[in-house]
Amino acid sequence: MQADASYLRGLDLLCKVEGASQPVTLGALDDIAPDLAAMAVRFVYGEIYTRPGMALRQRQLATVAALAALGNAEPQLRFHLRGALNVGCTAQEIVEVLVHIAIYAGFPASLNALFAAKIVFEQQGLNPVPVHVPPAASRHDAGWQALQRIDGDAGECVIESLKDIAPDLARFIIEFSFGDIYTRPGLGLIEREIVTVAALAALGTAAPQLKVHAHGLLNVGGTREQLVETIIQIVAYAGFPAAINAALIAKQVLAERQDVQPQKGIQS
After folding, report:
1. Cα–Cα distance between 165 and 168 in angstroms, integer?
2. pLDDT tops 80 at residue 151
3. What CA–CA distances, in Å, run from 230 to 155, 214, 218, 223?
4. Is residue 266 over pLDDT 90?
5. Within 10 A of 175 (CB to CB), how many other CB atoms are there?
6. What does the pLDDT average to over 78-100?
7. 3-state DSSP helix/strand/coil percent for the chain, to nearest 5?
8. Residue 81: closest CA among 233, 73, 35
9. If you average pLDDT over residues 206-217, what whole number do you get?
10. Is-contact 196 102, C-beta < 8 A?
11. How far from each other are the two terminal CA atoms of the chain, in whole angstroms?
12. What pLDDT shows up at residue 201?
């Protein structure tokens, strides 16, 4: 493929993420699908990663969250764990992203991603200090306050809807998800909601929860652009159908908040 402006822009960005003057990923497919490598440089790094609206370090955290949640691409997860470090994310932020993923993709996905991160940290000569956060005096109170701040009425409706079928599940959401994890230091609420949206969009199996957390990202100070760019970012890792479905959910959320007007004849 001819080295056009998008390719050259993407190559420069890939070098920054990989931390190399000549990315090794380019030659890895020479003997089977060289065009795919060139497409990745041009499209993923030249057209997606270089978009305005979201900082590069946030893009890397969203990518790590999506790959960790999917749980089926450890080589790429390790690559992007290194990439996150290369663009300024800290080891503690990465660990917090992977702990956070336990809420939405389960403990196996979180544990496997943390083991991958441990290998990457060792390879990079990093020895992050383990962070132990004691439970709040009242996990329920701490969690309820966090849920109200982040998810607002939508979160409260989820809790209310579970009371007549699984009240303990509602309690676990409050005490564990919000009381134990969302209140942890090391990762801001905007980043926590970006990685939540990225993970849920990539999984593609939790539309109602994605809608709640699209609202949540905006509730904690995230921008319309960060919401949309998080969804565009996962095209490269979960595919167009997942991103399109997530974008239609974001459209509903923005319309409800009067950030955009729904178009007639378009069913979302």
Report:
1. 9
2. yes
3. 21, 10, 13, 11
4. no
5. 19
6. 98
7. 70, 0, 30
8. 73
9. 97
10. no
11. 37
12. 98
